[in-house]
User: Fold this.
Amino acid sequence: KLKKLEKELKEHHDMAEEGYKWRAQDRTNSMKSNSKVYTMIIDFGQGLRTPTLSFGAAWYRRVLKVYPYIICGYGKDGFKDVTYYVWDETIAKKGADEVISCVHRNIMSFLPDDAEHLIIHFDGCFGQAANCPFMCFCADLLDPSSPFYLEQLVRITLKRNPVGHTFCDCDTCHGKTQSTLRKNMGGQVHTMEKLDGAPEGLVSWEEVITTAGFNCVLVTQKDVLDYTKYLMTKMYKKPSKAVAGTSSARKKWLIS
Assistant:
């Protein structure tokens, strides 16, 4: 039994190491001169406590949940972009519709006109990208009959991080954002977005993110579309080969 557990542990570590190497390789290949590959690494960052007041009475008050969705993009000729899509709990949740809305917007904004292969790295959270609606969205990008169709794309590869080894570029960027707040901006945040006419000393997450060197997009309710309702019709059948069956069948779905 011990040998079996040791074998399983080794396989898990090998898979994780292979995943990290894949990501590094995809970044490098995407940023080569005249590359036809574009790589996206997508993930939610840790929720942004708002406000971050530290005195006792404020700590026990109701705080606002602010969700940061982070997309790191890598393209030809050394192109790199990091964009935060930010909203609070009164605007939207953290489901497939929110994720697809952000990813689609990012693709339309940054995908090079001559990119033929799109690679997307994501974690295993089922409610976000590791689900059927997200797969269907990617399939629609390649489907000439879909309104989402992108004629330039020939192939989309989805790569999911192994469970327990989901640390990625998005986490590194989020760490830099938190460090910027502590070291350069006094350590306290009061609002999500920068307010017109705000008094000196009132800090927003929007300002912290941009000071850290990243793009910040404030998401509104109009920006979150009901993709799942469109994609998941009554005629839809779950692609069992994507989650079950033989190893060779799963590889056809290009999911790590």
